[in-house]
Amino acid sequence: MVWLIILLVMGLMLSPMMWLRPSPQQQRMGKLREAASKAGIRVKLGDSPLHEGGQMASYRWAYPGEYPGPRFVLVREAVASDALKQFTDGWRWRIEPIRPLPSEAKARLETVLAELPADAKVVESSREGLTLWWEESLDVDAFERQRDNVLNLHQGLAGRSDEPAPRKLGFREMRDQARR
Fold it and tell me: Which domain of life is it from (predicted)?
C-alpha cells in the first residue's frame, strides 16, 4: 500500500512537467522556424491579411534596400472572394502590381504558386520583402525545397518596384535645401 501512495505522489509531481513538454507538432514547427531563421528568412506570427483574421505565420524574404520589390497580394482561391481577378489556377489578385511583371518573373511566380502546400494562403510582395503567409505544414526537408523556389522568385522580383526610387541629392541640392 505504501508503494502505491509513493507512486501516486510521484505521478502528481511529474505530471505538470509532462504538460509543459512541447507536442510533436510544436517540435516540428520549432525546427522549421529555426531552419528558416538560419537561412535569413524573418519568421513572425502575426495577424493574418485574410478577412477572417486570426494568427498566422509569415515568412519574409527581405529585398535589398537599393532593390525594392513590386507591390502585390495574391490570395488562394479557397479563401478569396469570387470578385477578385484570377491570376493562375487556384490564386487570385487582391492587389495587382501596377507595372506588369516581366514574363520570366511571372513564370517563376506561377511555378512557386503551383508548388506551395495547400495551407499557404497569401503571397505578398512589398518594397521591403516577399512574404508567405501559411500554417507551417511542411517539415524542414520539404521546406528547403520550397525555400529555393521562393528564393529564385525573390531574386527575380528584386529591383522591380512599382514606385520610382528616390533620387539622391547632390551636394549643391542638399545645400540649397538646407538654406530654405
Answer: Bacteria
Question: CB atoms < 10 A from the CB of 91, how many?
Answer: 22
**Phi and psi (nearest 5°) for 121?**
-105, -35
Measured CA to CA, the distance from residue 87 to residue 107 in angstroms comes to 12
Q: Which helix (H) or strand (E) element contains residue 130?
A: strand 129-134
Residue 26 parent element (H or E): helix 24-38
DSSP, res 168: P
Q: Which residue did the predictor score with more confidence, 15 or 125?
A: 125
CA torsion, ordered 142, 148, 149, 155, to nearest 10 deg: 160
Taking phi first (over 0 means left), then psi (-120 to 50 degrees means alpha), and beta for anything else, what does residue 40 get? left
Neighbouring residues of 90: CB distance < 8 A, sequence distance ≥ 6? 76, 77, 78, 113, 114
Q: What is the pLDDT of residues 81-131, one digit of tens each?
A: 888 888 888 999 998 888 888 888 889 889 989 888 888 889 999 889 999
> How confident is the model over 64-91, as a mean pLDDT?
87
**CA neighbours within 13 Å on the CB side: how many for 169?**
8
